[in-house]
Amino acid sequence: MLQSEPCWYERNWRWFVLGTLFLATFLSYFDRQMLGAAMTPISEEFKLTNAMKGNLLAAFLWTYAGAHLFVGLILDRIRNLRWFFPAMVLAWSATTVLAGLATSYEQLLFMRCLLGVWESVNFPICIMLIARIFPARERSLASGIFASGAFLATLIAPKVVIYFSTHSDWRHSFILAGLLGGAWLVPWLLIFRRPTERGVTCPEPLAANGGPVLASKSDTILAVLRSPAFWAVALIGIGIIPSLYFSTQWLPTCLEKSLNLTYGQKLGNYLLVIYLMQDAGLWIGGAVVLWLAKHGVTILTARKAVIVVGYSMMISIALLSRAETALAYIVVFCCFTFGIGVFLGNQHAFKQDVVKSHVATVAAWVGFIEMMFTAFVVQRVGKMIGEQSDFGPVYLVLAGLTTFALLVVLVLLRPKWLRIE
């Protein structure tokens, strides 16, 4: 008996799932972005020094990184992803609300630590699902689209936080951000249903509720740690993720101090333009890889070529200490963040090509390595700039790390070590 042609929705189901991943990533970053955008009123209320600011910004990163050690192993074995994921979204949303109710530096510090634990599941889940439902040539674009949810949040969060901070209270923005998490459950539960009945292409079968087939714990650990590609992708993260978190956590303070801006909507407008370029980099970088792959260029070569372009944009930050006008600062930061987006979307795609059967574990452990280093850098920024807020040395450190990441891409990402299919 002939099977009927799948309807348009069934043929494009993977893109609808990607839309829910985009929204979850938006919520994740919207919540974590609250602190950086509200740092000025929070600092005034709690009398924070630059070192204390660094501790607050890094607290999330330390626990976020630590949770990655075990979250990947859990996700590669979870039997009910359809309900596990929304439980985590609700947990990080509730924590954000509680952060908005904090009455001391210590309470806020604790809530930021807790937020890092809950949010650690988001990227491993998203990367794992993309690996299972998208063909290889679409993964850079799919990775860029889901990750762009993070930077859409960085576009919107400063405007929202600054509005509430200047018109009522910074706490209201935290409460609003937390309450948005419940709304996400509706599209997720409606769309992510019966994945095995929708023609999913993946290296191993999915259980009926969306969880992958169980794997041996010892086999998982050895398979991942023995892969040269795993260490290469982790080293790339060490090179570029500090730049990502500098742009999302320290950039508002950097622009305030460097351009002598007052805390208001003008600052929010500058951040809006800069973060928009980060989103553009994610989408355009993935689209160019897809276009090159369709025209006969190997996927690995296409990704490397796009990354080189991204690097050429990011390295402009080394010149920032010579900038003398607001326009120069904005142009350089736009180039810098565009390059981050280009680089980052392809790094996410490489995580899916290391060990096909353990994508969540690979993504989580890479996250652990890159985030532990990033937490150290973000915390040190507060001490590096001193009370005079001189960001010149920070720019040079980020430029050096970016160059290191490019060298890893060109030297260590080899076809024999990757499973690009």
Outline the structure in words:
By secondary structure, the protein is mainly α. 77% of the residues lie in helices and 0% in strands. It has helices at 8-11, 13-37, 39-46, 50-75, 81-100, 105-119, 122-133, 136-167, 170-179, 181-191, 217-225, 228-259, 265-294, 299-314, 326-351, 359-384, 392-412. Helix 7 packs antiparallel against helix 8, helix 8 packs antiparallel against helix 9 (170-179) and helix 13 packs across helix 15 (326-351). The chain is globular and about 60 Å long. It starts with 7 loop residues before the first helix and ends in a 9-residue tail after the last helix.
Helical coverage, percent range: over 70%
Mean pLDDT: 85
Secondary structure tally, helices: 17
Radius of gyration using CA atoms only: 21 Å
SSE succession? HHHHHHHHHHHHHHHHH
Share of residues in strands:
under 5%
**Residue ranges: pLDDT <50 for 5 or more in a row?**
199-215
Structural class: mainly alpha
